[in-house]
Amino acid sequence: MSFIEIKDLVKKYGNTTAINNITLDIDGGQIYGILGPNGSGKTTLLKIISGILPPTSGSVTVNGINAVTGADSIKKFLGYIPETPALYESLTPIEFFNFIGSVFNIDSATLKERINAFSSALEIEKYMNEFIGSLSFGTKQKVAIISALIHDPQLLVMDEGMNGLDPRSSRIIKELLRDFASKGRTVIFSTHIMEIAENVCDTISILYNGNIAGTGSLEKLKEEAGSNNTDLEEIFLRLTGDNDLDTLLNSLKDL
Ligand code: ADP
């Protein structure tokens, strides 16, 4: 059994098909990237996996638990970071983390230990008593990541969570995710930026128009695309067969 099993998944919003019959197994203990241009269905897929959004048909299980009927159970071992995290701008990070700790009923010694460890690993100790609203984009993103990790989840889902970070923050967060996955935990994140998928993920699924165009390590995708080129850009184009190259490639770059 894979950690996440997605079977015949379809999601429609009225006449729009956002997810068009996806079947996918995701093993635990790795960093898994969903790469696709805007509108390809990434957010929809992550929300269904997280039990936030019900599918139109098909099924998803996470650790054997059905994402619709067992959404409450999944929430207990899930950390979810939406594309635009809702942070309380008028709280300080320490107040926010304490608030999350009380929601998850974490005892105060454990909570303190985790807050200290994460704030030190992500280098935000000096901002702990500043208003969240006054912090930089990268620091806010770190606050969002810590708030999603504070209850020690098995699965971390990040929607476009690696975008727009300065190189140092990006490296520090990548190390944190690597450490998290090395403990048998799972990270799934979406991105429309090829470079991020290439640099951070063990496995990449290419999502295009609600379909999976290819899945595997960079090496496996290369093989599938029949390409000797090491470039994910080339692989993406071969697997999706899209001819509107400029539009597509621009949508996959951090412009
Ligand atoms: P991505 O995260 O890759 O940008 P989304 O999952 O947000 O893709 O969207 C996939 C498709 O579903 C798009 O065509 C989008 O316009 C549509 N969509 C997403 N959410 C809604 C919604 N709440 N109502 C109607 N259409 C939606």
Automatic annotation (TrEMBL):
A matching Pfam family: ABC_tran
Boundaries of every ABC transporter domain copy: 4-234
Entry-linked CDD domains: ABC_DR_subfamily_A
Cited InterPro entries: AAA+_ATPase, ABC_transporter-like_ATP-bd, ABC_Transporter_VariousFunc, P-loop_NTPase
Annotated keywords: ATP-binding, Nucleotide-binding, Transport
GO molecular function (one): ATP hydrolysis activity
Protein name: 3-dehydroquinate dehydratase
Organism: Acidiplasma aeolicum
